[in-house]
Amino acid sequence: MSHRRGKTIGSAKTSAQIKKKVKQPQIFLGTRTVAMFPCYDCNQCPFVLKGKDFVHPTTGYTVHLQNNFTCISKYAIYALVCPCGLIYIGETTQMIKSRILQHRSSINLDQLKFMVLETVPPMKGGGDRELRLKQREVWWIHKLQALSPRGLNKDYDLYLFL
């Protein structure tokens, strides 16, 4: 004779269906200000454009940041500012400091500065966060006129909106 345990709600759910709250590390001790800040813990911090606003170097267009960002922000759209005055708009799912390191290793420019423009929060109802990130990147490329020859972006994909 064998004994079998009854079914519970926990046994019916998989670990992927159980939502866990991920606590983000606290970087600032005071109140959070809407701005871009270095994390002060990586090699990319000296290249951060600090502040509440991003000003396009050639057009003068000002972007007012809507959140606080650091080098450890993920799912972000960022602007790279070249010393020649052109900008590149990019997106990444990894930490900004990792992505900027990849850019700097291929470009080898110490004057290259960057700022996070926006992050894409997790989608409600399980939407595709990466698709939304790519759509926002295209929006920013168009908004800031970062497409070549006015900027450093080569092209963008409008099929993301279909």
From TrEMBL:
Coiled coil: none annotated. InterPro entries: GIY-YIG_endonuc, GIY-YIG_endonuc_sf. Residues 73-154 form the GIY-YIG domain. PROSITE patterns: GIY_YIG. This is GIY-YIG domain-containing protein.
